Amino acid sequence: MNEHLRTALCLAADGVPVLPLRRGKGPFGNCPTCAKNACGGRPNMKTPGPCRCPAPCHAWAAATTDPAVIVSPPWAAAWQGAVCVGYHPGGAGLTVVDLDNADAIAWAHGALPATRTVPTTRGEHWIYRGTMRSVNGVRDGVDIKSTMAYARYLGPGTGTMADLPDAVRALAAKEPPTVRPAPFAAAPTGAGGGECRHRTPAYLERGIAMAEQRITEASSAVHATVYRTFLAVLSTHGRCGCLTDAHVARLFTAAQSKGESVRHCTDAWTNARTALGM
């Protein structure tokens, strides 16, 4: 029995739903039966409740406290390839305030009540008793992980766990940032001067709709999926004048629905344009 599996069983015995995390600290992708949510399991991982697949599919929705499932053959192979243990904070009645840098930690010390603290690679997890909705990017370097989300287990931490304060709930209650992508100046039509084939409304609409779907169906590696999708949209539609700010806003909205912040969206869009020389 490897170390991650042993840790997972100990957590499960304490009522903490666990799941294996692969290289990159993300969840394992859906099994062939559940690929693209063909099983009807947890579309976009937005439906509460556990996954019915016997494999560790659907990220947070796969988390379990059942030791028989955790050591079963589909999961056993995943634990062999796991780099760490993940858990579903909301399923354990907890909320994790993920502080990703020194400035975020300094803010927390001044704004939030003390609670159990766990060091992370770049910052700290502050763990509170109680659940709420999960939101990324509530302020610079601060994510909230509770219901319908997973966090890495990095040890028991130190300090006495406090009840979830209103100060944390208020962070998620704020209106999400308005999506205002920078005005998009498309490259001029090619030298041939002919009518751009991308101006066909159905062609462009289908392309944007497919891009939105690709982002919202991402079950892991959301950052990378958003960037690759932006790159694909720009390479196909970005040089002919057909892409508008409204189209870009739709893509940003899709990315934000997966937890991306406006800053992450803007950075991904800018990096994609730079990669294409636009």
Describe the structure.
- Helix 6 runs antiparallel to helix 7 (222-237), helix 6 packs parallel to helix 8 and helix 7 (222-237) crosses helix 9.
- Helices cover 36% and strands 13% of the residues.
- The chain is of the alpha+beta class.
- The strands form two sheets. Strands 3, 4, 5, 6, 7 and 9 form a six-stranded mixed sheet that branches. A three-stranded antiparallel sheet has the order 1-2-8.
- 36% of the residues are buried.
- It is built from nine helices and nine strands.
What's the helix and strand layout?
Blueprint: H1 3-13, E1 18-21, H2 67-70, H3 73-81, E2 84-87, E3 94-99, H4 102-111, E4 116-119, E5 124-129, E6 135-139, E7 142-145, E8 151-152, E9 162-163, H5 166-173, H6 201-216, H7 222-237, H8 245-257, H9 262-275
Parallel strand pairs: 5-9
Antiparallel strand pairs: 1-2, 2-8, 3-5, 3-7, 4-5, 6-7
Helix pairs in contact: 6-7, 6-8, 7-9
Which key features would you list for this structure?
278 residues, alpha+beta, 6-stranded mixed β-sheet, 3-stranded antiparallel β-sheet, 9 helices, 36% helix, globular
Overall body shape:
globular
Distance between the termini: 52 Å
Q: Flag low-confidence runs.
A: 43-48, 175-180, 185-194
The major beta sheet can be summarized as: 6 strands, mixed
Based on DSSP secondary structure assignment, what is the total number of beta strands?
9
Strand content: 5-15%
Helix content: 25-40%
* Helix/sheet category: alpha+beta
Order of helical and strand elements: HEHHEEHEEEEEEHHHHH
| Spatial extent as radius of gyration | 21 Å
